[in-house]
Amino acid sequence: MMTDMPTTALELRDVTLEYRMRRSFFRHSFRRALDGVSFDVEKGETVGIIGGNGSGKSTLLRVLGGIYRPNSGHIACWCENIMMLSLGLGFDPELSGRDNALIGGVLLGGRRREVKQRVDQMIAFAELEEQSKDPVKTYSSGMKARLGFSVALTMEADLLLIDEVLGVGDQAFQQKAKAAMLSRINSEQTVVFVSHSLAMVTQLCNRVVWLERGRVRQQGSAVDIVEAYKIEQQNKT
Ligand SMILES: Nc1ncnc2c1ncn2[C@@H]1O[C@H](COP(=O)(O)OP(=O)(O)OP(=O)(O)O)[C@@H](O)[C@H]1O
């Protein structure tokens, strides 16, 4: 008998994370950034994470990306490779843009030969053909951001984690980055998208999870949750 392929990509149950902060040589304190967070992401869905400053959005994405381990709760993931679209993380300043693109692609789970074939595409998307052999330390922050975005976008992943990256680079690059992301999101891609742009969230997401002080305040269809969030914002002012 054939068993059905799982349709769930991610399952979070009661996920809690505390940052440990050093107060003095002997003393530490803890800040709870996620507090009992539970939700599911189905395959092919784009789930938006919204909430005010400090509500835990980036922390949640880092937990999903395996950068932080939760203190309690569990995360089940049925995706083989997960990619975090973030900006210029971990570039080696002494190496060229081309070498960093190659290393970045491999770090994102690509096979070396496969990544090598795609490096030209990454450099071209980032519009860095002329500077591709220069060390990254000579790049402006916008150039580094463009390279980081291009590397992540060119690679393939079952689950894409996106943390507010659309403010990258100049206006023309932002348009291009947005179009590239949209085409990716409209396909079968599973995405978790953190953003302060409610318009983008409504445009891109099927479902939304609203975080407040590390807890899920509400979750449901993108239109309903964004509406409820906007009403609350208006009532606050
Ligand atoms: N490295 C850290 N050490 C200690 N506390 C942290 C750290 N990173 C974040 N925090 C705290 O954890 C909480 C959640 O932060 P997080 O960055 O996840 O929020 P966010 O919703 O992404 O915020 P923003 O919208 O401002 O980017 C905040 O109270 C923040 O001050």
From TrEMBL:
The keyword Nucleotide-binding applies. SMART domains: AAA (SM00382). This is ABC transporter. Residues 10-235 form the ABC transporter domain. GO terms for molecular function: ABC-type transporter activity; ATP binding; ATP hydrolysis activity. Keywords: ATP-binding, Nucleotide-binding, Transport. It comes from the Bacteria. Belongs to the ABC transporter superfamily. GO terms for cellular component: membrane. InterPro entries: AAA+_ATPase, ABC_transporter-like_ATP-bd, ABC_transporter-like_CS, ABC_transpr_TagH-like, Bact_Polysacc_Export_ATP-bd, P-loop_NTPase. It comes from Lamprobacter modestohalophilus. Pfam families: ABC_tran (PF00005).
